[in-house]
Specification:
By secondary structure, the protein is of the alpha/beta class. 29% of the residues lie in helices and 16% in strands. The chain folds into two domains: 98 residues, Immunoglobulin-like (Sandwich); 359 residues, Glycosidases (TIM Barrel, Alpha-Beta Barrel). The longest helix has 23 residues.
Amino acid sequence: MCTLRVLLLTVALAAIPSNTETISVRRPTEWWQTATLYQIWPRSFKDSDGDGVGDLNGITSKLDYLAELGIEVVWLSPFFASPLIDSGYDVSDYLSVNPAYGTLDDFDALVARAKKLGLKVVLDYVPNHTSDEHAWFNLSRHSVDPYTDYYVWNDGISVNGTRQPPNNWLSVFNSGSAWQWDETRQQYYLHQFHVKQPDLNFRNEKVINETKNILTFWLDRGIDGFRIDSLPYMVENIDLLDEPESGLEGYTETDFYYLDHIYVKDQPENYEIVRTWRNHVDDYSKSSNVTSTRVTFTEAYANLTNIMKYYEYGSHVPFNFFFIKDSEGVNNAILDTADDVVQIITQWMTNMPEGGTANWVFGNHDNSRIATKLGEGRVDAVNILLFLLPGVATIYNGDELGMTDTYLTWQQTEDPQACNTDPSRYEYFSRDPERTPYQWDNTTSAGFSTNNVTMLPVNSNYLEVNLAAQQSSDVSHYKNVEALIKLRRTNVIREGSLDVKVLNDSIISFSRELKNEEPIIVLINWDNETSSTVNLEVFENVPDNLEVLIADIHSGIDVGTKYVKNEISLPPNAAIVLRRDQTSGSGAIGSSDHHLLPLLSILFITLIVNRFFNCH
């Protein structure tokens, strides 16, 4: 009979979930580690003077909105002096404001207002290249010291008596060779992006010192950090070796991805430059006796190994683009199944170096909007992931409303990345559709401008999709983001552990748990056709009775809906956030208490068996 007791004990032990992989989250000690970062595209956010172009004063006028929403950090895309060949990423003067956007006084007023509202301000910094209208380039092309070697110059090679570029490197903007002959200097200069964006020479220490001066200039004006652009391209192979063909389908010989970029991207020297900038920002903070850390966010589309190196070399937050691009940072990310999504989450969380802070990015100025690429029915689901996973959340202006890409004709297209292709392919390459005016209300030009003519056309759906309508509605994407950011500020989301699973092949599920706090559970049905019913007993610490705290607007599920944990049915695309049913009892059970429950069950069964069979 004692054998039966052992068998019963084995059954009881088997009932304890064995597939739980809980990921610990370090308690945040700095403001940026749980920041909600809001990216503003200045050209299309708000026009204050009726010229059809967004500007700094327009942004200042809307800072109250961002503060009320719960945003903590405002990231401003480039507004510097520029001929605007590449929407301001072609900088002609890093230390001044493009007149189209305002003045330095306007910028100072923006920062002052932000500080009064408790908002921090982060600026884009574009170090890889300047505009060919920058004073440095003019002096360099005339070989005026010390600017002679500020850029990457080369004599080229002679093939059968014909002068040619030194190698086969291609422009990111699909325009063919990354080298341009300059008649004035009688040499080629490197431009990895537009022909009017010559690459700076980061092997020149004087250039490094110039970059430090630029950082200092803006830090002196009270900003809280930088988002540093296009880091993989800063340093190239010193021997200028030809790159091999990539073998990728769909690209012509002049397209960037026709080649495999092993010599112009992700070179080891890039990381040391990042360390230099991090040290400079840290030294500035120490010497200025500021009480708040100045932060560096870094942009790099690359593979996981190369991205993780940025942590090691000083980036506070290397942007996580794996919900946007694939594992090599080339093609669009595959997000077809729940498993696809969960793998991206666990891959990032488990590969971060010790002490790293996680971050999540689903959309930005360079990629199709969430509502377009994943479907309007998944807007709330994505925002739930964005705001309730651990670490930094970055949202692109308009994604809180579920704004969609705007269709633009070939004639309306401005993006050089698209204009360098042709009318049959431009839509795949154009970044203009996600850069159209913010939809504030249903008035002229969606409330973006009093002008009927705007920098890019307003999306025709602005009459229904706009902030004013969503603020006045009982349920909306905006209302859900507002609720998510409020929940995001709780201790359990700020520092609770993460346990993420795929249930029934289609349900993305995760819990956020912290001792002495009520756990938060997220369920998202990633199947857009089939309902699914799940049992949450696979999570150790989930209360028996649950209620809906937040639900996506298309789910048909109301906030406050009650569930028992072993039977929760989700319609297609439905996404919900659950907590303990507030009417089913009081008090939160600490994680350590929950872990005792299976052991108590075993002891109870053992006592019953012993007594019944009189084994002693």
